């Protein structure tokens, strides 16, 4: 049993090393890939920690790397599916709190001496934070699935990330249930095989996706006109006319399927059209181009300078002032009020 345990852990470690090297050699300049490489190192620590326990002082850095998995997984999901280009301060803060509470719950070996009550509260809080991070990661994974215009990335959402996220969450729940008790050898073997199988699956899907499914391309802003002429293809002309002449973007309930029904183009072909012809990776970014362009024009137009910013935003298709303010500042680098005053 012990030999099989070491054998399966060795295979899992080798696969993780191969994944990290392959990504690092080809795509290391991209933020999402760097976070993914960091996730593989965290998983390496998770694989090595039980092997090194009571055998090497390297157990402690391996254990620390293992404890970063929930935080790094959430950072990876944010980078890949929300197109974030830098770590979220909130995620980093939650991750640091989770790790600190975990060490506090264990008595911070050699430093703190806590009674059972003093250890149980930090342990409970750390588990709550862990579950919240994993649940939020899964929410981000599925929340924008219908709005995602990159077909390979849509497949990645539903196949690999959901599977890996559910697997990590399941492992953490099992460990929480057993606590400090010894996990049965049979479960450890299944777990070791699962790590290797999940890594193999992830590598296979990444190879089938290519860089476009993983790496974020530049997203056109509200200040950038579509780069293809509307007359180049009839379908593209129909879509742009629906936006610029019929002003369909003002519909707060407009979805990619709804737009497809309105212009008579199947949803899958419309996704590919907007992504490949206009360069948008997310349907909301496509809508924001038109909504923000109208808002920016009306903010400085003489006949609408008296209108409240909220009224203009709602007229242009926004349902939430928070969403509008965030999108506007990301596109123009100014708040709507600052933009109006400047112009």
Structure write-up:
Helix 2 packs across helix 3 and helix 7 (151-178) runs antiparallel to helix 8 (185-209). It is elongated and about 75 Å long. The longest helix has 28 residues, at 116-143. By secondary structure, the protein is mainly α. Residues 221-231 have low confidence and may be disordered. The protein starts with a helix and ends with a helix. The relative contact order is 0.08. The protein contains 16 helices and no strands.
Quick take:
The chain has 16 helices and no strands.
The largest sheet, given as strand count, sense and whether it forms a barrel, is: none
Structural class: mainly alpha
Unreliable spans are: 221-231
Distance between the termini: 73 Å
SS element count, helices: 16
Order of helices and strands: HHHHHHHHHHHHHHHH
Number of strands: 0
The Cα radius of gyration reads 24 Å
**Can you give the helix content as a percent range?**
over 70%
Mean pLDDT: 80
Task: Estimate the strand proportion.
Answer: under 5%
